Amino acid sequence: MPPSWIGLADALLQREALVSRVAEGRPPRDFAGLFVGGEDVERILGALPGLDGPDAEKVRAVHEAAAAGIDAARARFTEGLRDTSPFARLVRSAGLTSTEAELLAVLAAVEMSPARQRLVQYMQDSVQLSQLTLAVLARFFPEGDTLVAPDAPLRRARLVDVAASGPWGTRLCSVPPRVVWHLRGDGSADPDLPPGSTRAAGDVEVPPAAGLLLVNGGDRLSRLGVVAGEWAGHAWLRCPLPSNAAEWTAVVREATCGSAVVVLETEGPLDAPGSDAVTRAPHLAWVLSTRGELPLESVPDIPWREIRVSDTFADAQDWKRSLDREPDPAYRLTRDQLRLVTAAGAAQALTPAVRRLAGGHLDGVAVRIRPRRTWEDLILPAEDAVMLRELAARHRRRDTVYGQWRFSPLPSTGVVALFAGPSGTGKTLAAEVVAGELGLDLYKVDLSSVVSKYIGETEKNLERIFGAAAAGDLVLFFDEADALFGKRSEVSDAHDRYANIEVAYLLQRLETYDGLVVLATNLQRNIDTAFLRRIAVAVDFTLPEEPERLAIWSRCFPSEAPIEDLDLGFLARQFKVSGGIINNAALGAAFLAAEDGTPITMRHAVLAMKREFQKLGRLRTEAEFERYFDLVNREADAAPAR
User: Fold this and answer.
1) Are residues 439 and 493 in the same domain?
2) Of 521, 557, 565, 636, most Cβ neighbours within 10 A?
3) Is residue 350, in this structure, part of any structural domain at all?
4) Cβ distance 504 to 354 under 8 Å?
5) Is the pTM of the predicted complex or chain greater than 0.70?
6) Which domain of life is it from (predicted)?
7) How would you class 533 by CB atoms within 10 Å of its CB: exposed for 0-12, middle for 13-18, buried for 19 or more?
């Protein structure tokens, strides 16, 4: 036995077909609507509403004859709207009246059957009109075309489409394929949904209460937990913000078919088309899930309420449920991040999974440095070395000071360090050593990948960096930080204003970041004073003195390297350069010796130092090179041809 809505649709179609044949006297004929003959003109003139129209008595007789069957079909139809069939759930979800439901039934029945389409062609006297037109709807229902007007519930719920072009009277009314599949019992998602959309089934038959909920703060999974709590047991549709009209239509239609709560995840306010789309579908339950609060003027003009999510970190229950273990104090993961690392195999090995989580977001904008060098490789004054160890201790003992001893963590438990000094004095090496001491990876941020000329893009890139770093418990190293953390300027044009916004955003993000950040600069005076107030440890890297230079020279030559007549004391005493230049010179000397096929000698060392002076644009003086001055000034100082 067909569904009750099919029975009513067939009864109404049968009645109107009889009206066409009996009241209008229209015989079935081939090629209907493809040409107009003389007898067609007479019949059309007689049927015009402004003239006599079809014989009213004949129409009345047909209606009376069909009334009993239609009444019985309508009674079954009304009873069927109370069950859990796909059609009944759709009517309840869209909030349709009984008349609107009947119209939907007729249009859907025609859509699903070629035989009914043939009948519609006969009723409309054209083989080209296989779907009901706006002009014919009035024959089925007194309201007729108003049931599918642009603001009618059937159109707002995206359950009926009306052709956008052609004469008004012949515009076809149709049911979209997604609705037909739903009525057939198939739950396939609408193909026009925004990419990345997901659906979750529910076990509650009653549609969710309509309205708008703003959920902000926290991470995505915590906000989704609020939705689950507000609409427990209901289905939901989670999707990114639609980017065009087709995607908005698909979202509304899919949520209506599935009686689902719509969760829109966005980083910013809705644009005008998006706000209008939400406003035009008041039968749905909408959720706008955002990290920050939305501007009031961007909130759609429907009743709304707001929930702020504050606690976003996974608690002991989350860890137990996901990984069957106690929380690891080394990692402060949000619920969403815990879900991701669980999928990445954290149950077997937590640390690699967490590092994989962070690396996937950071590798495009930062260089990962896996620490290999230790304190023995770092040659610094004793006071600077002590300060670096204090920096590592600040990060390592956060749980003791802020957790057990209850010191205030405001503005956050994070540690910010400033390494200032000339290039090559060991700032990057020091950051690597500290990271190695803590057992963390070091990410050197590539500023060229972060700073953008487009408004707002720099902030997005930085949010991506800090968000990923927070999950991985790693060390962020901003080299040449004065380019990014520089002093705010007087506002003289739009560029200055947006540059100051970037600086303010960076300061805010540093204050809320719970990890370790190292800012490196060649010129400390270029750093904005607001950042200096946030600095926990500041280390001033200077050029090494002679004892330190001697230690650096000594460490630059491995024990396996062949050395002959190499006066390291002379090199350390004469060349007042940074450790980076010393390392480059030692490496250059090794390659010169390898090409000569001899051990590394003073000749190779001073020639390599000459190359470093050339790169720096620095003059070579006899006071520095002494007895090797003639050697470095001869044209034939390069390695001999072989």
Assistant:
1) yes
2) 521
3) no
4) no
5) no
6) Bacteria
7) exposed
